[in-house]
Structure formats: structure tokens, C-alpha cells
Amino acid sequence: MIAGAEDVKGLRKAGKIVGSVIGELKRRVVPGVSTAELDGIARALILEMGGYPAFKDYNGFPGNICISINEVVVHGIPSERVVREGDIVSLDVGAKFRGYFADAATTVGVGKITDTAKRLIGVTEEALCVGIGFAVSGRHLSDISAAIQAYVESNGFSVVRAFVGHGIGKKLHDDPEVPNYGRPGTGPVLETGMALAIEPMVNAGTFEVEVLKDRWTTVTKDGKLSAHFEHSVLVGDRKAEILTKV
Q1: Helix %, strand %, coil % for the chain, to 5?
Q2: At 210, is the pLDDT very low, low, confident or very high (cuts 50, 70, 90)?
Q3: Which of 4, 168, 222, 233 has the least CB density, counted as fewest CB within 10 Å?
Q4: Which bin fits 106, alpha (ψ -120 to 50), beta or left (φ > 0)?
Q5: What distance in Å separates the CA atoms of residue 170 and residue 153, rounded to the nearest whole number?
Q6: Can you list the pairs that 240-244 forms with residues at least 24 positions away whose Cβ atoms lie under 8 Å?
Q7: Residues 227 and 202: beta-carbon distance below 8 Å
Q8: Which CATH number characterizes residue 72's domain?
Q9: Partners of 226 in beta bridges
Q10: Which domain holds residue 143?
Q11: What is the mean pLDDT of residues 192-214?
């Protein structure tokens, strides 16, 4: 969507909720906490701030947020699984506020993690920043995609193809799709006020993934680590506005 003045107010509020929840969850990801506990904390905080968990029952998803550990790329279902020292944990949070949606993700290391895990997290977060830098009026959508891919691959990692970013606003997932790979200078031209969720999903090994029997949990095909960072943004004349700052 292209947001008008009233839309921007709603998007900013939804984004503030999501950013606040992620900030709190990052402090709660410690050895011994279960993903179900984290899910409950997220739900309570979203409701307390006047929002509603956007993922709950979305296409049948059973959790309030997605929590993906180690080789799980996206859509990890909260459960009694306990977080352990050395894990990397991706937290994907969506909230609805008075008809407006925001969506963001982060990956955190638990205690002492491997050097590969540290690099993977750092490269994925920086890839998101690089992509957001191209979310300006007059650029092509694929300029975001190509910049993310180039940065990730120059650092020896791979970008997931099977899942992509998306438009956001009055729908959780809206047009256009925002891939993390592609050729620059193609696709739609960006306009000021476009609301996008940009979300590189980066694997330590192959970009190939597979979905488990629960029809949600998506893992790397080679069992190697994956990281996920995301922000909801508004395209600007000179730079994007990040709606989901932590």
C-alpha cells in the first residue's frame, strides 16, 4: 500500500508495538526458557499495548509469534522446546493495531556461540540495513533485492529463495513481493509512502530449504544454521523510515 497521513499514524503505532516486543524478547532469550514461554510473553505485551498478535491463526498458524532455532529458517512453532547455550534464535513478531499491520524479526545468539554463527547473524543484520538503504523513491524494487543478495554472497553465505519479503499495511502480506535476490533496475518503481517488510533470510550453507510435516517449520536442507532479520519500512524521498525500530 501507499500510506496517506492517517495510514502512517496507524503503521507507526503498529510498528512501535512490534519493536517494543522484540526488544523485550531479546532480553528474555536465555538458556532454560521455552519457546512457549517467549510466545506467551509476546502475546501479553502485544495485547497490553492495544494490539493483537497478527500471526495467531493466520492460515492456521498455532502460535502468536514464530520462533526458529538454529537450522530452522522461518515459521518455527512455539512449544515446550527449551533454548540452550550456543543456540541462535530467530524471533519473528507481527502485530495488528486498529486495522494496520507491522512485522519484524531478529536473530540472537544464546551465550557463547560459534564464530560462524556470529558472522551469520552480523551479515544478515547488515544485509537488512543495506537493503533498506535502497528503499527510496525512484529506485526499482529489485534494487533492494540485488543489494541484499550481493552483500550476503560476498560474505560467503546464501539467501533463501523460497520465502520473500512483502508489502504490508492494511494486510499482513500484501503486494509487492520483495525477494532477497535478483537483478537491479527491474520490477516496479518505488514511490514515497510505500509500506514494505524487507526480510533477508540467510543460510550458512545452501539456500535450499524444506518444510517439515507440521506444514510450517521450515529448515535448511543441509542442516546448517540460518538467520533472519526484518523491518517494516516506509519508502521515503531520500531514505526509508523504519517503523519497527527496537
Answers
A1: 30, 30, 40
A2: very high
A3: 4
A4: beta
A5: 33
A6: 240/132, 240/133, 240/135, 240/136, 242/15, 242/132, 243/11, 243/12, 243/14, 243/15, 243/16, 243/18, 243/19, 243/102, 243/195, 244/15, 244/18, 244/19, 244/22, 244/102, 244/103, 244/104
A7: yes
A8: 3.90.230.10
A9: 203
A10: 5-242
A11: 98
Which three cell numbers mark 96?
Answer: 495488528
What would the pLDDT profile of 39-56 be if each residue is shown by its tens digit?
Answer: 999 999 999 999 999 999
Answer yes or no: pTM beyond 0.85. Answer: yes
Count of domains for the chain: 1
User: Dihedral (C-alpha) 47, 49, 52, 54: value to the nearest 10 degrees?
Assistant: -120
Cell output for 88: 541462535
> Do the bridges between strand 100-109 and strand 88-97 make them parallel or antiparallel, or are there none, so unpaired?
antiparallel
Looking at residue 1, its pLDDT comes to 81
